[in-house]
């Protein structure tokens, strides 16, 4: 593992990757910690802001489709659409709907989308496995 490919990548890639890692760590804490507490709510708002920043920053990253938007950007649109509803469900004490939305975002926007970054030839594959990155 080497951070060199990431640190040599454009700043937007770096911001996007570090935000995603932060969201992954914070989301894991949120899933494991007690729900409905002040820390859960406070960290939850931080997680929502980070997820929105990740989704927005993804629109500037278009390497999969040679400069065009790709299927991965559908996840970003989904994230930006679901986040406000997930917060609204929590504020209206619709705990089950809130939980489903947040777990869906964690699994889909972080785990599944993150898995796509580990494909050979992608930047995060180079970071984790040391393979050369073409960009």
Q: Tell me the β content.
A: under 5%
Cα distance spanning the termini: 18 Å
Number of helices: 6
Radius of gyration: 16 Å
What sort of overall outline do the alpha carbons produce when their principal axes are compared? globular
Low-confidence stretches: none
Average of pLDDT: 92
Percent in helix: over 70%
Written as H for each helix and E for each strand, in order along the chain, the element string is HHHHHH
The biggest beta sheet is recorded as: none
State the secondary-structure class: mainly alpha
Domains (count)? 1
How many E-type strands? 0
Key words describing this protein structure:
135 residues; mainly alpha; 71% helix
